[in-house]
């Protein structure tokens, strides 16, 4: 990943010269919306302004201000149901399948209620996320608790609440969970997170199944097998199965094939050595979405059928029954359902080294509401949202208001040449990890999340205020 404190243009590999990425082409219609980037109800109204869920973005901006995360409720819930139904159908001939929404993508009380009502479980990875799930009255047996460094207090709360699964991440945690379960007088249902040595084709920081990273128990060298032996020896634990997660933003099933093979090899070895048939296998999440025109994600049905073929084939080769499968989509449900709406401030043209110009369009948010561009070198798209334009497209970079050269929201996009102060811009695909990873950098309050449906809008997470910021300052 290229990085430089003065900003991406100065980073190694850029040479100080901006180039248009090979997937980005000047649009024939600068007002066109690519369907794969937007929630299902987003469209342009009669005068060219964006509408979502029957609500005009200009009225949203007037009512709640900008920046604001705008979530299409129907789209979010339809994606959740699509995963539920696709995996249920694909594994119906075997022991079935469960879908757990990965709350780290975006979680609030109402979202937890939605996924529960729509028949999904909920995967949480901290005490705070667990608190949201319990506040939303998610049935505890449908909650899974992840985390590579769970505190005793988090584990105690999960055990007392009766969560349905704890994903154990280390050898010491096997015994610690067992001891805490004995203290609480319960039997803990656990899965072992295993690292299978698969290098997902994604950014270094979101590839999570190769050996040199913090998560899980390595299959190579024996830690995963030792964890299984320890778990089976502790009567306070019910070992449900194995868990494998290979990374994020994955667009095909090839990586899952290798991961499933290695996880199922261990599954079969445990059955041979201990005479125990583990009932479950969790293949994690990481399913990619379209952030720009270069991305071509699979539909839930295609993912489910592909993964069912892989698991069935591997189990047949090993001579074991297909266990109950679970997956944990987060980004694939939340990501496309939401866009961030900004107001344009300063607009300036910068002369580049090779004589070309780039237009810098500054908006009233930035890296505090979307850190992914800076953190993961992520690409985003955007469009003029408050009106249509007949101007020719110009190459633009959308930047934020923060005192940071790397404060980039959209690195490269063609925008109408007449974009000006006061216009609204919409950045699609921001439903996953943007609000979850938002900060108060430069003491900028975090934006609200507003859900729209059937012509009505309601606030799910309110906007922070300066009073909220000052309330934490003990001085």
Secondary structure topology:
Layout: E1 43-44, E2 50-52, E3 55-56, H1 57-64, E4 68-72, H2 73-90, E5 97-102, H3 109-117, E6 121-124, H4 127-135, E7 143-145, H5 152-161, E8 165-168, H6 171-184, E9 188-195, E10 217-218, H7 223-233, E11 237-243, H8 254-274, E12 280-282, H9 300-318, E13 324-327, H10 331-334, E14 338-351, E15 357-363, H11 372-376, E16 383-384, E17 393-399, E18 408-416, E19 424-428, E20 449-453, E21 456-461, H12 466-471
Parallel strand pairs: 4-20, 5-6, 5-13, 6-7, 7-8, 8-9, 9-10, 9-11, 11-12, 12-13, 15-17
Antiparallel strand pairs: 1-2, 2-3, 4-14, 14-15, 14-19, 16-19, 17-18, 20-21
Helix pairs in contact: 2-9, 5-6, 6-7, 8-9
- The coarse overall form would be globular
- Strand percentage: 15-25%
Cα Rg: 23 Å
Structural class: alpha/beta
The total of beta strands comes to: 21
CATH fold label of the largest domain: TIM Barrel
Mean pLDDT: 92
Number of domains: 2
Largest sheet: 9 strands, mixed
User: Percent of residues in helical segments?
Assistant: 25-40%
Question: What's the CATH first level of the largest domain?
Answer: Alpha Beta
**What is the CATH superfamily of the largest domain?**
Alanine racemase
Terminus-to-terminus distance: 39 Å
Unreliable parts: 1-17, 202-210
What is the CATH architecture descriptor of the largest domain?
Alpha-Beta Barrel
């Amino acid at each position: 990943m290229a990085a430089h404190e003065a900003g991406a243009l100065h980073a190694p590999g850029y040479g100080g010269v901006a180039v248009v990425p090979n997937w980005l082409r000047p649009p024939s219609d600068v007002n066109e919306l690519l369907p794969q980037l937007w929630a299902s109800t987003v469209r342009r109204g009669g005068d060219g302004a964006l509408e979502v869920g029957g609500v005009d973005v200009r009225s949203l901006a007037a009512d709640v201000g900008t920046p604001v995360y705008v979530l299409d409720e129907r789209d979010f819930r339809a994606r959740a149901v699509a995963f539920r139904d696709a995996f249920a159908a694909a594994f119906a001939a075997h022991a079935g399948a469960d879908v757990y929404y990965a709350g780290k993508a975006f979680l609030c009380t109402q979202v937890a209620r939605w996924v529960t009502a729509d028949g999904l479980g909920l995967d949480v990875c901290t005490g705070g996320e667990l608190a949201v799930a319990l506040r939303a009255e998610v049935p505890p047996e449908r909650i899974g608790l992840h985390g590579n460094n769970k505190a005793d207090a988090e584990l105690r709360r999960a055990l007392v609440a009766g969560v349905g699964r704890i994903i154990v991440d280390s050898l010491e945690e096997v015994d610690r969970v067992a001891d805490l379960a004995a203290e609480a007088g319960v039997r803990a249902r656990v899965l072992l997170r295993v690292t299978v040595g698969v290098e997902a084709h994604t950014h270094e920081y979101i590839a999570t199944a190769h050996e040199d990273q913090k998560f899980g128990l390595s299959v190579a060298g024996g830690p995963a097998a030792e964890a299984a032996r320890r778990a089976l020896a502790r009567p306070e634990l019910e070992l449900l199965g194995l868990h494998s997660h290979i990374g994020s933003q994955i667009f095909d099933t090839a990586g899952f094939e290798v991961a499933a093979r290695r996880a199922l090899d261990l599954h079969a070895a445990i059955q041979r050595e201990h005479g125990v048939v583990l009932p479950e296998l969790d293949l994690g999440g990481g399913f990619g979405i379209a952030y720009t025109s270069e991305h071509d994600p699979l539909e839930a049905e295609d993912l489910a059928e592909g993964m069912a073929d892989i698991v069935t084939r591997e189990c047949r080769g090993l001579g074991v029954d297909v266990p109950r499968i679970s997956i944990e989509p987060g980004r694939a449900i939340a990501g496309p359902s939401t866009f961030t709406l900004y107001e344009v401030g300063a607009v300036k043209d910068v002369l580049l080294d090779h004589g070309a110009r780039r237009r810098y369009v500054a908006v009233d948010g930035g890296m505090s509401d979307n850190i992914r561009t800076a953190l993961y070198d992520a690409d985003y798209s955007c469009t003029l949202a408050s009106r249509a334009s007949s101007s020719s497209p110009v190459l633009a970079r959308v930047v934020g208001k923060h005192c940071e050269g790397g404060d980039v929201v959209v690195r490269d996009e063609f925008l109408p040449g007449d974009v000006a102060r006061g216009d609204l811009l919409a950045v699609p695909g921001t439903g996953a990890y943007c609000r979850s990873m938002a900060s108060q950098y430069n003491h900028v309050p975090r934006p609200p999340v507003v859900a729209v449906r059937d012509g009505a809008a309601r606030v799910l997470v309110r906007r922070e205020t300066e009073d909220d910021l000052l309330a934490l300052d003990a001085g």
